[in-house]
Amino acid sequence: MSDRPYVIDQLISAKSIAARIETLAREIETHYAGVDKLVVAGLLRGSFIFIADLVRELKLNIEVDFIEASSYGNAMVSSREVRIVKDLSGEIAGRHVLVVEDLVDSGFTLSHVIALLQARAPATLRTIALLDKPARREVDFRADWIGFEIPDEFVVGYGIDYAQKNRNLDHIGKVRFTD
Ligand SMILES: O=P(O)(O)OC[C@H]1O[C@H](OP(=O)(O)OP(=O)(O)O)[C@H](O)[C@@H]1O
Ligand SMILES: Nc1nc2[nH]cnc2c(=O)[nH]1
Ligand SMILES: [Mg+2]
């Protein structure tokens, strides 16, 4: 698959992402006003740029943790088997947890991770996803905060890869095959 020639067309600019994150950060600050500490847990690898930008906008007392899940490998469709590659480093029982994800597509990844974390009895557990592709949903799942709803396109950039490439683009693009 990944040896097919392709180009990347811009879908969401770096400026639009930054503006949207500012708005989301204010909503999250309002939601957690009065909470003394929040665990912000990023889902690796795709969310690494989003979480870095989001936490720098949040004027809250936070801790950062990561969990790594993978279900796509180098493919463009979900294997439907979500592998936990790395667990959170810290305990979350009784704590307020916000899970940060780059993209909800079929919904398998985030719903699996949320079920796993919910079983650890956090005080609250919420989710934020930069991108939502509702047309592709296979399990009933909606993040609590969403950056952008996008059409059914295979996207890359701003942390998101195609066969491990393009994560370093500063914007979101869509893959267009040229063969
Ligand atoms: O809603 P879903 O259909 O489950 O798809 C979304 C997930 O797929 C991608 O992760 P991937 O498994 O490719 O791993 P990565 O984050 O390490 O790139 C993306 O980062 C989301 O985590
Ligand atoms: N790179 C990439 N990975 C995904 N995983 C689920 N949907 C997508 C997508 O649109 N792009
Ligand atoms: Mg991911």
UniProtKB/TrEMBL annotation:
GO molecular function annotations of the record: guanine phosphoribosyltransferase activity; hypoxanthine phosphoribosyltransferase activity; magnesium ion binding; nucleotide binding
Where does this protein reside within or beyond the cell? Cytoplasm
Question: What cofactors does the UniProt entry give for this protein?
Answer: Mg(2+)
Can the keyword Magnesium be found in this entry's annotation? yes
User: What GO cellular component entries does it have?
Assistant: cytosol
**Associated pathway:** Purine metabolism; IMP biosynthesis via salvage pathway; IMP from hypoxanthine: step 1/1
Q: What is its EC class?
A: transferase
Ranges in a coiled coil:
none
Q: Which UniProt keywords apply?
A: Cytoplasm, Glycosyltransferase, Magnesium, Metal-binding, Nucleotide-binding, Purine salvage, Transferase
Q: Which reaction does it catalyse?
A: IMP + diphosphate = hypoxanthine + 5-phospho-alpha-D-ribose 1-diphosphate; GMP + diphosphate = guanine + 5-phospho-alpha-D-ribose 1-diphosphate
A GO biological process held by the record: GMP salvage
Q: Which InterPro entries match?
A: HGPRT, Hxn_phspho_trans, PRTase-like, PRTase_dom
For this protein, the Enzyme Commission number is 2.4.2.8
Q: Which family does it belong to?
A: Belongs to the purine/pyrimidine phosphoribosyltransferase family.
Name-wise, this protein is Hypoxanthine phosphoribosyltransferase
Name the source organism.
Answer: Meridianimarinicoccus aquatilis
Q: What is the lineage of its organism?
A: Bacteria, Pseudomonadati, Pseudomonadota, Alphaproteobacteria, Rhodobacterales
